[in-house]
Amino acid sequence: MNIVCLDMEGVLVPEIWIAFAEESGIPELKRTTRDEPDYDKLMRWRLGVLKDHGLGLKEIQDVIGKIDPIPGAKEFLDELRSITQVIILSDTFEEFAKPLMKKLGWPMIMCNSLVVAEDGTITDFKMRLPDSKLNTVKGLQSIGYDTIASGDSFNDLGMIQASKAGFLFKSTEQIKKDYPQYPAFEEYDELLDAIKKAL
Description:
Layout: E1 2-6, H1 16-24, H2 39-53, H3 57-64, H4 73-83, E2 85-93, H5 94-103, E3 109-116, E4 122-126, H6 132-142, E5 146-151, H7 157-162, E6 165-169, H8 173-178, E7 184-185, H9 188-198
Parallel strand pairs: 1-2, 1-5, 2-3, 5-6, 6-7
Antiparallel strand pairs: 3-4
Helix pairs in contact: 3-5
């Protein structure tokens, strides 16, 4: 039994924080896991920036509502789901992901959750489990699945390395250079063909 594990941001939809940075005019919020491998450190820094600017969940959700999947992502996902099981493993949050999952046809997603005060301020976040992508892949393997994984950032490398096949997709030149053992693709049809061969 195979199961494909895909990252969400940068792979299927644009980076939420980059879109929010552009919309809000706060360029420092463009930092993502492509720039900062330590997700906990990155999120705590983001929450501090939001607090400094008096911004909360509503403002972020308003921007997310305008984000569309990357062109071709839904078609890629639809075809992939017609031939194998697929789970999106993301370090994003339920409160961010829902409108995007609707636009992608409600694929299964495993992500995290935010702690939000009554006034809409994001006060904290709850990770589903430590190193969630890698540990989810290991969990799937422990119940009899072979995993195939693809992502674009530092936080995807664990699940890619632990899987029977792993691919970089729309990744940075630095990550592609540092991990030449993983095929790197820019187009969905290339990734789909590689996954089909690995099944």
